[in-house]
From TrEMBL:
Domain of life per record: Bacteria
Organism whose genome encodes this protein: Leptospira johnsonii
Classification via InterPro entries: 6-blade_b-propeller_TolB-like, Serum_paraoxonase/arylesterase
Lineage of the species this protein comes from: Bacteria, Pseudomonadati, Spirochaetota, Spirochaetia, Leptospirales
Protein name: Arylesterase
SUPFAM superfamilies per UniProt: Calcium-dependent phosphotriesterase (SSF63829)
């Protein structure tokens, strides 16, 4: 979900209550075993993993306190106990991280991170490059901020998926405009959030606007087939596009809708090609949780197999984790991020 200023939430409650009053039913509990919290990272909204090294990178931003800047943390998933470490790097000014994507291209590691420089007004993609390999002294190695990407087509970026240094897919959650226009579009479920695409030189729009776009994921299957998945929050679906390349240009085929029944957030893939997404069953409870940590917001997790069949693997009314945002698997465990509170939940699969 997109970050928001807590001070305007009463207005949202009053208006959205009329629209989403039927979106807060009881949640059937589907538990996972052996769950425990990994604390110390405020608002750990998105995750990215280096599977070779077992390092989990975390986009962290305290969204409940106005004008707070954020950081990137990492976890060595092969260590015990699991303790978050701050990624020591010179962060750009007004760094407020959101979606994150890790690229390993021929041994060259880069982190691409969406930053909301000024909420609802100015956004960027900040690029960090690993300059020294991990060592006993520094598990994540050394990193350097190397680039800032901005473009008018990056209207309100929520998530991104990086296929190479010359190919970035960005999911906007809204079109142009400020907060009040965003609210108007959400109320009437107007399809204004498009996909922005960077080819290494320039930006273009891949179109396909939805109402409140969210997670996005580029996948290249073993047979060479290229697919783009995108969360369409207000429709409660994940859209699946075949990617076509014609004369050096990229084109998306007609999307297939994978219906989940509640608003999907970020998208991650496991080593078997299954897609994992976390959904928000209640918009109203999510908004209340945004301003009050003690007000629970339910979380569900679905897996989508390569043949597009779905399986609900986790459901919780919010007592265990509220407003979950990302589910990422590693060695028979799943790591569940969330938008606001200061921990990641790890459970057995």
């Amino acid at each position: 979900m997109a970050p928001m200023r807590v001070s305007i939430l009463p207005l949202i409650f009053a208006v959205l209550g009329l629209v989403f009053s039927n979106c807060s039913g009881d949640i059937k509990d589907i538990p996972l075993k052996g769950c425990s919290k990994i604390s110390g990272m405020p608002g750990p909204e998105d995750l990215a993993i280096d599977r070779d090294a077992g390092l989990l990178y975390v986009s962290s931003h305290e969204r409940r306190i106005k004008d707070q800047e954020g950081k990137i943390y990492f976890l060595d998933l092969n260590s015990s106990p699991l303790e978050p470490k701050l990624l020591e790097v010179e962060y750009p000014k007004n760094f407020r991280p959101h979606g994150i994507s890790l690229l390993n291209q021929n041994g060259k590691y880069r982190l691409y991170v969406i930053s909301h420089i000024a909420l609802y007004k100015e956004h960027s993609i900040e690029v960090f490059e690993r300059t020294e390999k991990p060592s006993a002294k520094s598990k994540a190695g050394k990193w350097k901020h190397v680039q800032t990407l901005q473009d008018p087509l990056v209207t309100s970026p929520n998530d991104l998926s990086v296929a190479s240094e010359n190919e970035i897919f960005v999911s906007n959650d809204h079109g142009e405009g400020g907060f009040m226009l965003y609210l108007f579009h959400d109320l009437f479920r107007m399809k204004r959030s498009e996909i922005a695409y960077f080819d290494g030189k320039s930006w273009s729009s891949l179109g396909n606007p939805v109402s409140l776009g969210n997670g996005i994921l580029y996948v290249k299957r073993p047979d060479g087939k290229e697919i783009l998945y995108r969360s369409s929050f207000n429709e409660g679906t994940v859209l699946k596009f075949d990617i076509k390349r014609e004369n050096g240009k990229i084109k998306l085929g007609e999307p297939k809708s994978i219906l989940l029944g509640s608003g999907p957030d970020n998208l991650e893939i496991d080593e078997k090609g299954n897609i994992f997404t976390v959904t928000h069953p209640s918009v109203m409870k999510f908004l209340k949780h945004a301003s009050n940590a003690e007000s629970h917001s339910p979380t569900k997790i679905f897996s989508i197999s390569p043949d597009d069949s779905i399986l609900e693997i986790f459901s919780n009314s919010g007592e265990l984790i509220s407003a979950g945002s990302t589910a990422l698997t590693y060695k028979e465990r799943v790591y569940i991020a969330q938008v606001f509170n200061d921990f990641i939940l790890q459970c057995q699969l």
